Automatic annotation (TrEMBL):
Keywords in alphabetical order: Cuticle, Repeat
Gene name as annotated: LOC108620606
PROSITE patterns: CHIT_BIND_RR_1, CHIT_BIND_RR_2
Organism taxonomic ancestry: Eukaryota, Metazoa, Ecdysozoa, Arthropoda, Hexapoda
Annotated signal sequence range: none
PANTHER family, per database record: CCP84AA-RELATED, STRUCTURAL CONTITUENT OF CUTICLE
InterPro entries: CHIT_BIND_RR_consensus, Insect_cuticle, Insect_Cuticle_Struc_Prot
Name of the molecule in the record: Larval cuticle protein A2B-like
Pfam families on file: Chitin_bind_4
Length: 122
């Protein structure tokens, strides 16, 4: 059996970036290693529409540490109120109520008929 090679100071760098407009998949990652220290960052779009970016480091002294940031993909739009418009005629507001397509039959409530009140004196 051949002896495995040992690198006392491993080093590498890699990166990838995916933006698939058909599936909506969007993610990227970069990472590099220099000896026992690894640094990197990756990002992806979560199901709730936020982009998550994780920056991480790992080394023998501090272990693995990550900082996670989330930001919405759609920026909030400021609404600016328009100046009021003076109108000489304003149409009345019309509210249309639409009844459901089906109706359950309800019999009318029974009506009790009572005669006139009678007063008795003893």
């Amino acid at each position: 059996k051949a002896a495995e090679e040992y690198d006392p100071h491993p080093q590498y760098k890699y990166a990838y970036d995916v933006h698939d407009s058909l599936s909506g998949d969007s993610k990227s990652q970069v990472e590099e290693r220099d000896g026992d220290v690894v640094r990197g960052e990756y990002s992806l779009v979560d199901a709730d529409g936020y982009k998550r970016t994780v920056q991480y480091t790992a080394d023998p002294i501090n272990g693995f540490n990550a900082v996670v940031n989330r930001e919405p993909l759609v920026k909030a739009v400021k609404t600016i109120a328009a100046a009021p418009v003076v109108a000489h005629y304003a149409a009345p507001a019309v509210v249309k109520t639409v009844a459901p397509a089906y109706h359950a039959y309800a019999a009318p409530a029974p009506v009790a008929h009572y005669g006139p009140a009678v007063a008795y004196h003893h």
